[in-house]
Amino acid sequence: MLTRCFENLPIPTLDDFHQGQKGSSLVEMLVVIAISTMVIGIITTSLVQFLLVTNWGNDQLLVTSDLQVAALWLGRDVPEASTFTQDTVDHNQYGFFAWRDHTGVWHEYHYYYNPTKGSLVREYRRDDSTQTTLNVARNIAEADDVNFSPSGDLVTVEIKSTSGDVSKTIELNLAMRTD
Questions:
Q1: pLDDT in tens, 57-75
Q2: Each residue's pLDDT tens digit, 19-54
Q3: Chain-centre distance of CA 150, in angstroms?
Q4: Residues 120, 143: contact at Cβ < 8 Å?
Q5: What's the pLDDT score for residue 13?
Q6: How far does Cα 103 stand from its chain's mean position?
Q7: Which end of the chain has the smaller Cβ count within 10 Å, N or C?
Q8: Contact, 43 vs 59, CB < 8 A?
Q9: Collapsing DSSP states into helix, strand and coil, what is residue 76?
């Protein structure tokens, strides 16, 4: 009985499946390729710009942070000091700020360049004993990028910080205390 139901049905051929369908033309394929190329080009350009701006921005933040931290430490140390002794022997040693407190204890803040780390270092000593050592600026390319120039009770400090293609310089004019 089931075979009788299917006896009168036509058997489909391969041509029956392709009726009403047509393939894409060469022009349509070229248009799709052109649009895809433009979209990929725009996305790639945007991504490259994003990465470049991000790297530049990171470098800007690094040098700005370095200079701010160095300025904060120097702005704290110099007004406490009554003298500055510049080191003229060792090119990597800038000198030290010193004073004697009311109990007679001798304090010194030594500033020097660490060529291994490329940084400006602050070392605190009390009675010739090192208490703390701190990198106050990490992106100092060479010793000449920091300059201490004393003039009486005033000290001018020039610091240049460099990260990648970004380089900034600050000049600090600081006054030591007068006893």
A1: 889 999 999 999 999 999 9
A2: 655 667 888 889 889 999 999 988 888 888 877 778
A3: 31
A4: no
A5: 67
A6: 43
A7: N
A8: no
A9: helix
Q: pTM of the entire structure?
A: 0.70
- DSSP bridge partners of 123: 110, 133
Kindly give, in sequence order, each residue whose CB lies less than 8 Å from that of residue 89, ignoring residues fewer than 6 positions away.
Answer: none
Longest CA span, the chain: 122
Whole-number Cα distances in Å, 162 to 5, 119, 157 = 88, 11, 17
Compute how many other C-beta atoms are within 10 angstroms of the C-beta atom of residue 89.
5
Residue-level pLDDT at 15: 63
Q: Which token pair is 29?
A: 């394929």
Q: How far apart are CA 53 and CA 64, in angstroms?
A: 16
- Are 112 and 92 within 8 A, CB to CB? yes
User: What residue spans define the domains of the chain?
Assistant: 52-175
Residue at 112: amino acid letter: Y
- In this structure, the chain runs to a length of 179
- Of 134 and 8, more confident: 134
H runs (alpha helix) in the chain: 2-7, 14-18, 26-80
